[in-house]
Amino acid sequence: MTQTPGTTADATAKADDPRGRILDGFLALLSERSFERIGLSDVATRAGVSLAELRAAFGSTFDMLSTFIRDVDRKVLAGVAAEGDEAMADQPARDRVFDVVMRRLDVLAPHKDALRSLLKSVRRNPFFALALNKQAVRSAQWMLAAAKIDTAGLKGAARAQGLALVQARVLETFLRDEDPGLAKTMSVLDRELAKGERALGLLGNLCVLATCGGRRAERAAPYAGPAPQEPAAA
Question: Where are its TM segments located (predicted)?
Fold first, then answer.
């Protein structure tokens, strides 16, 4: 997977931004150890800031994690906006959601080690899993909005929870998928979206998904390629 190198201006901005350095330090630590073993002093040391500077920027390590999730949301939304509303306006809802989730995985790709560590903590600690689910649902609301799916009211909340579950399942495959084209990841995403739409309205009016049957939208590299096919039944 090709990553765009940062510019000198980006590096300078990060050097002047303690929040950015702190987040980088936190994610580096998360790639090395479990979330519950990361202390505030550890983050301050890794980021090269004082505890006073750390406290001015973040309230806790969970706050850092929440900020990382919001930053991922922002980058996905900015990417969608850069292409304009017309880019996928004529595509079925299922294709729009598919595109947004793949964009999100593109943003997450540099942080696979940290995400693997995070998933291990989620499996060990149900209370942490519940807290993180709230963040995931809030994030999913923004992803649905980017896909032009209504997020209002109880139906919107159900759709967001459904998409959060879909993304969690897809993430596990994504973290094991070493194929640059992410064929396995796209296949699982396609299947999970199909399952979600059938699960007693779990995704609500991701409506036309059950009948749209349309092609997956063509994507820019690194995900360009033919539509994923669901594996044949055993």
Answer: none
pLDDT of residue 91: 82
Q: Which CATH class is domain 14-59?
A: mainly alpha
What's phi and psi for 206, nearest 5 deg? -70, 45
The residue among 82 and 76 whose pLDDT is bigger is 76
Q: How many residues does the chain have?
A: 234
| Integer angstrom CA distances of residue 151 from 8, 51, 212 | 39, 39, 20
Cβ count within 10 A of residue 63: 12
The mean per-residue pLDDT over the stretch 172-188 comes to 95
Q: How far is the C-alpha of 164 from the C-alpha of 171, rounded, in Å?
A: 10
Q: For residues 105 and 95, give the distance between their C-alpha atoms in angstroms, rounded to a whole number.
A: 15
Q: Is the bond preceding residue 222 a cis peptide, omega within 30 degrees?
A: yes
Cα–Cα distance measured from residue 30 to residue 108, given in angstroms and rounded to the nearest whole number:
14
